[in-house]
Amino acid sequence: MIRALAKQVIMQISRLKSIFAKTASLANTPSTTHPAAPTLTHPVSQACTASQFDEDAYRYWCEQIREQPRTHRKQWEFCYILQVLSLAGVLNPGRNGLGFGVGAEPLAAIFAGRGAQVVGTDLEPEEAQRSGWVETDQHASGKDAMNDRGICPPEQFERNVSFRFVDMNAIPGDIGTFDFCWSACAFEHLGSIRHGHEFILNTARLLKPGGIGVHTTEFNCSSNDETLKSGSTVLFRKRDFEAMIADLQAQGFEVEVNWDLGDEALDRHIDMPPYAADNHLKLQLDRWVTTSFGLIVRRPA
Questions:
Q1: pTM
Q2: Cα dihedral sign for 158, 160, 163, 164?
Q3: Could you tell me which residues come within 8 angstroms of residue 126 by beta carbon, excluding any fewer than 6 positions away?
Q4: Could you give the C-alpha distances from 89 to 66, 116, 180, in angstroms and in order?
């Protein structure tokens, strides 16, 4: 069994090296792609890479969410979303945002603390219980969970934040329109690649003119063919993102993307179960190597 696992890891590393060698030619929409390494200074739709952890923006947002910086992709997802929305200028009084699958993440508290009106959403408790989100502390049963770190003053949080239960596969028609939408590590849990695709299109339609959506999810960076297509967690391939982007652009939305996966030693490290608290950018999940990917969608003004 150990020999078989070692052989599998070697094959995955070989695949990953092959992908690194081809990153310059991966994109097929040159007008909306970026050949340079992804950064938080000028973020686009991009993967989590090692060099971004060294940026001032990463340290700044870790301080804001009251965490010590770690080389961990989930922390990167929070910092990436915060940086994207901050640079977009939507975290101000008079702006409103909608979050999906918020759980106890600290993002809504940051947004509210800067004056934005926020609607946080999560699954109905019964469905969340069935899906295992309650027992793993990844579910919000009310808005208080979104400020459990005390980031936003209680009176301001109460004034600027509301909460409702929402199924991401059936977004209510009365939910409204927003200056920004976000989700962190959520739409890969909707049951299938197709459900994730539809979620991105549906949330884009909720954006006001000039609005922005930013979502993080799983990126299968070891295969553009086979993947986890259905179940509690799916892994989106490059071609799945390309299909989303094509549909978004066909409907008038704007997406810029950088497919670079990084070229530092940590970018080539593959974390294995049980996963580490640091040095966790790419990991083995089932038969594939995955990392976090951020998708930014803009509605023209």
A1: 0.90
A2: positive
A3: none
A4: 22, 11, 10
Q: State the amino acid at position 105 in one-letter form.
A: E
Whole-angstrom Cα distance, residue 264 to residue 198?
A: 34
| Residue whose token pair is 């028609």 | 173
234 touches 219 (CB < 8 A):
no
For residue 271 the two structure tokens come to 């974390």
- Give the position of tokens 């003004």: 301
Q: Is 66 left (phi over 0), alpha (psi -120 to 50) or beta?
A: left
Task: From first to last of the 301 residues of the chain, give the pLDDT tens digit.
Answer: 555 554 555 555 555 555 544 443 343 444 467 778 999 999 999 999 999 999 999 999 999 999 999 999 999 999 999 999 999 999 999 999 999 999 999 999 999 999 999 999 998 876 645 555 444 454 456 899 999 999 999 999 999 999 999 999 999 999 999 999 999 999 999 999 999 999 999 999 999 999 999 999 999 999 999 999 999 999 999 999 999 999 999 999 999 999 999 999 999 999 999 999 999 999 999 999 999 999 999 999 9
Contacts of 100 (CB under 8 A, 6+ apart): 121, 166, 168, 181, 182, 183, 186, 187, 199, 203
Q: Residue holding tokens 């497919």?
A: 259
Consecutive H or E run containing 118: strand 117-122
Give residue for tokens 């969340």: 128
Backbone angles phi, psi at 293, to 5 degrees: -135, 135
d(Cα 142, Cα 190) in Å, to the nearest integer?
21
Q: What residue has token string 């936003």? A: 152
Specify the length of the chain in residues.
301
